[in-house]
Specification:
The chain is an alpha/beta fold. It has a single domain, classed as 3-Layer(aba) Sandwich (Rossmann fold), CATH 3.40.50.360. Helix content is 40%, strand content 25%. The strands form 2 sheets. Strands 1, 2, 3, 6, 7 and 8 form a 6-stranded parallel beta sheet that branches. A two-stranded antiparallel sheet has the order 4-5. β4 and β5 form a beta hairpin. α1 crosses α5. The chain binds flavin mononucleotide. The site of flavin mononucleotide has 18 residues, from α1, β4 and β6.
Amino acid sequence: MKKAVVYTSTTGNTEAMAKAVAVGVQSSGAELVFGTPGTVSADEVLSCDVIILGSPAMGDEEVEEEMEGFYTSIEAGLSGKKVAVFGSYDWGDGQWLRSWTERIAAAGAAVVSKDGLAGHLEPDAECTAQCESLGKTA
Ligand SMILES: Cc1cc2nc3c(=O)[nH]c(=O)nc-3n(C[C@H](O)[C@H](O)[C@H](O)COP(=O)(O)O)c2cc1C
């Protein structure tokens, strides 16, 4: 089993969540592909059974720009994959993750949770535990 965790983060909050997700992946015994769109390739990520993507809420409830570009580059290869999303937000209600999982489902992937895993600003202990659990069980 191979799991990818790919994220972007502007101030470190989604990055902290990504690191906790990676801890969970490693505790599950799966092989981990971990990084940002600048450090992992689309092919490497699409070679994984499970793909876990992280982006903060940006714009007006949108996926962050660099992740949007990376997501677009892998979207056509997501059919049949298990995909989860997570990320940090501030004032919204998690709409950016719900819109994202709709696109992922439309691409033919099995979405782990329709709502994704949204963490408010810097992840607290509860959010960190949820991230670890996502990495372990996804
Ligand atoms: C330009 C900009 C746009 C943002 N748009 C939203 C938004 O639409 N909804 C929301 O809940 N938070 C929004 N935020 C807040 C960020 O999602 C929040 O600060 C988050 O913790 C950033 O995570 P990061 O450190 O991983 O980049 C925005 C922040 C910035 C700077």
